[in-house]
Amino acid sequence: MKRLLALSVPLLALSAPAVAQTTLYDGAGGQRVSQYGGWLVFPPGFETFAGGATVLNTTLPDNSTQAGFSRFDQTLNRTQGFSLGFTLKVDSETHDGVNGPNRSGVSVIAITSDLMGIELGFWSDRIWAQSGPSFTKAEEGFFDTTAALTNYSLQISGSNYQLLANGTSVVSGALRNYSSSGLLAYNTTNFLFFGDNTTSARGAFRTSRVTLTNAPEPGTVGLLALGGLLLAHRRRRKE
């Protein structure tokens, strides 16, 4: 009896689902994002490769250039929870257009499977969130985005998000639903974007790695534990 119970502990540990991480881009192999697979890079011609990272530059000739990397082939389930990891450095960013105070030349967008999501703008000294369909600057956190390649983690769970930079929280808040804007990107489920999506700003950034980590199904670990308890109870009664 005791031996069976002792064996059930490591079995439960081995049966628990591991957190699944998918590498969406890794510049270590010398490839640009467009060469890695899975990404739509549009328009072409604005990405280069240097020092193990893809560089996207929309600073020339003016704010009119819009370009970026996007994909929508991964499941972004906010109920289950997930983390978008990316290693990124802002080389330059200027927001001097008509709507400049509410725009960024370097943005990251994550739209979940039910169209909730967050758009974050990266300026040289801060990172901030787009308010909603009106697209005005909302909560922000001060951080030097130009100092070095930084390991960011955009964590989304339930109705909230949090952005970490090298493990430290920079900005957090509630997820938004931007779909009423009518813009296709915000009406596309499981949508990810890195780039410049405005004519009121311009920027240049480099990224060396992008990953997606999905949390285990919330009920799975609990069911495994319950199964172990029921087994132990059954053994006690039987013996």
UniProtKB/TrEMBL annotation:
The organism's place on the tree of life at top rank: Bacteria
InterPro entries: Ice-binding_C (IPR013424)
Record has Signal as a keyword: yes
Pfam family, one: PEP-CTERM
The keyword Signal is assigned to this record: yes
Sequence intervals crossing the membrane: none
Signal peptide: 1-20
Protein keywords: Signal
Protein name, entry field: Ice-binding protein C-terminal domain-containing protein
Organism field: Armatimonas rosea
